[in-house]
Amino acid sequence: MIPMYTTIGEHCVELVCRSERLLAGLKKSFRFSFSSSRKPDLFVQVNEGYGVPFVDDHVEITKQGGVISYARADYLLETESDYVHSEISAYNELALKHALMNLYSAYLIHHEWGLLLHSSCVVDRGRAVVFAGPSGAGKSTAARLSQPRELLSDEATLVRITPRKITVYDSPFRSELHGAPDQPVCPLSSIQLLKQSPINLRNPISKPSALLQLTDKVFYWAHDAEETRKAFSLLVTLTEAVPVYELFFQKNDTFWELIS
Amino acid sequence: MTIRYVRSKDYDTVHMEGEWVILDADQFTVTKLNETGGFYWSLLAEPQSAEELLEKLGSHYSVPAGSAREELEEFLLHLVRCGLVEHEAA
């Protein structure tokens, strides 16, 4: 199979996909080329024919001989401990997407680059605004109601975290809403923790509360205390730098009056 | 016999805006403590009885020991349930 190349955040991924069916699914969200001007950061081989359709989110993690295995009913991800060389066997397109999110999130944390946050994100006047919350809180709804503002994510927001700057990249890990390709990288202005409500109201929350509430919004499968410390440290840097609010919002675009 | 309490292991902690956030790195769970909780937490690096904790709180914050007892007992119970604090090994 011929290797193909795609970019996620600042990273070049070399992908060898042995399944035309899975490749067709990937092409809905990822843009590929047959050559790369730079050395890839991640090398991934993809196979089909593993497991059963999606059962639940449970991932079994084992480590043996420098290889970490993440096994879910519908995918098996086997990766080296620096997450650079990996092999994914997946049942279908959904399983492959989740395995790639699992891999890329682990790669970002291991290299202390940033986090994938379970949230949607739109661009308002050149600045990124994140909407987070538990399932059903309205992340996709808030993103849809924010149109025509550009979308950076509707499922997993890709956040670059450094002590001096927090920025958001266009995320190919999408659920249903697809934005225009090649979105610019945007500084992150605020995070909203969503609560649907008959009224619009926005309250700032303290940094410790923000840290507490954002912990379960990180795509991370805990398996190693050192990696967990890295994820936590990135979250601390994020919450120290970016204001976090509770946003009670009506199902229309008037909540933007509280953000803009 | 007096029960003494101590942190069950070394935890990573962050002090932000007057509160403490404790990370359990094995589970990726975090726990937030207010200023008083953080004061107790800092003492629990070494085994402490409830009486000792109350006495130290009283001398540090000028709080009458009796008034904080119920709150402390609840706090210790909660931390034991979370696995952050355990009874001192015999």
Give the SSE map.
The complex is a heterodimer of chains A (260) and B (90).
Chain A: E1 4-8, E2 11-17, H1 20-26, E3 42-48, E4 60-64, E5 67-72, E6 75-80, E7 85-90, H2 93-110, E8 114-124, E9 127-132, H3 139-145, E10 151-153, E11 156-161, E12 166-169, E13 186-196, E14 201-204, H4 207-214, H5 225-241, E15 244-249, H6 256-259
Parallel strand pairs in A: 2-3, 3-7, 9-13, 13-15
Antiparallel strand pairs in A: 1-2, 4-5, 5-6, 6-7, 8-9, 8-10, 8-11, 11-12, 12-13, 14-15
Helix pairs in contact in A: 4-5
Chain B: E1 4-7, E2 12-16, E3 19-24, E4 29-33, H1 35-43, E5 48-49, H2 50-61, H3 65-82, E6 85-87
Antiparallel strand pairs in B: 1-5, 1-6, 2-3, 3-4
Helix pairs in contact in B: 2-3
Protein name (chain A): Aldolase
InterPro entries (chain A): P-loop_NTPase
Organism (chain A): Paenibacillus aurantius
Description:
- The complex is a heterodimer of chains A (260) and B (90).
- Chain A is built from 6 helices and 15 strands.
- Chain A has 260 residues and is an alpha+beta fold.
- In chain A, helix 4 crosses helix 5.
- Chain A is globular, with a radius of gyration of 18 Å.
- Helices cover 43% and strands 28% of the residues of chain B.
- Chain B has 3 helices and 6 strands; from the N terminus they run ββββαβααβ.
- In chain B, the strands form 2 sheets. Chain B has a 3-stranded antiparallel β-sheet. Chain B has a 3-stranded antiparallel β-sheet with strand order 2-3-4.
- In chain B, a hairpin with a 2-residue loop joins strand 2 and strand 3 (19-24).
- Chain A binds chain B through residues 206-209, 211-212, 215, 220, 222, 225-226, 228-229, 231-232, 236, 239-240, and chain B through 12, 14, 16-17, 19-21, 23, 25-30, 32.
